[in-house]
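Lab meeting prep.
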Amino acid sequence: MNPTSYSPDTFGTYLSNPENKCSGIDLSSATVLEVLDAYRAFRRTLNPSYSNDAIVRKVRQLEKEFSCTLMPAQITDIFHANFIQWAHENGNCYSTIKMYCNQLKAALVWASRHGCLLSQTYNVYEVPRYFKSRVALSQDEISHIAHFDVSKISRRPQYRRNMERVRDMFVLLCNLGQRFSDISRISPGNMFRIIQKKTGNKAIVDIDKYSIVPKLTYSILKKYNFCSPYRSTVSNYDKYLHILLQHIGEEFDDIIVTEVKAGGTIVRTEHHKWELCTSHTGRRTFISYNVMRCPTEAEVRKCSGHKSTKTFERYITFDED
């Protein structure tokens, strides 16, 4: 029916004809693999490059090894407890297992709206604590940094002013989600629309909608006349960021165990959390925070300036607590 030739009679005839009614999606008897395939097809209507191949391969591996067909109702707390151990024994580090669990959860939540029956305990599980060399911070940690009183540092005023600028710069990095090189170039005329220096991509950030703490973001921007709080090299900035986080102490002194797969074995090393924080942690924090609350990945990629989903997903670091 041509919308430009609307008439009540024609529209009424269309609506009364059963053949014109959409049957919708029925996943009431779908297997987990069928759910994952349907979810991928749905996501690709929004983002053609979306992929969940990793979890699909893992489920196929599990079904082959145990000669079974996995159904959504079997995804319970018991399943997760065993799945996590099984995947880890098969060489997957906990960060990868966390990704599997979250991809599975996202597909099942979506499928439940289309008739898929879930166990009441499908979402009751705990992935063992893991830490990667790339970390993202929580909203509380960002607030802790933002409200740290640099006047408590027993050093010269010039040193304290420098720490204040380092602090404010990091809060902006977390709230605007851009690279250090791009935040260094912001001005009153380009703070919402940034042409990224590294890629030439355009990033558009709606502060009110996507900043972790919008009020704090505006406060810092006004403080520096909508320009960058810190202008220097990124290596120099990272050095002073580490010093600032050591001054703050507490959670940033926590020991982090990183896992790296080398030669078929998982090598674990220990670091203080502040050692793993860099200017890029702000960008990772912004993306990880928004990807969990925005309805589509495309919204977040519009802010971050990512054209590729594959590159974008490297920034997603889930909170393990």
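Slide two material, second protein:
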Amino acid sequence: MENTNRNVFALNGASGMIIATVLLLGILAVLTYFGILAQKDVATKPYSLDNPSGIQMKSTQNAAHVKIKE
């Protein structure tokens, strides 16, 4: 049985590899962009702790100690 259905430009060949590489690099670029935006947003809004000694190990009330300076 002879395989005559070989094609260099099929999606499982060189073009498929290029498409997958471009897709992965695009996803990396988008996630990097959103990560940088998140870091810039956090860097412009510093915070302080009201009562650091009152923070417990596991408590849902720990968020009340954080004050965001805007």
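Talking points for slide two:
The longest strand covers residues 47-49.
The mean pLDDT is 84.
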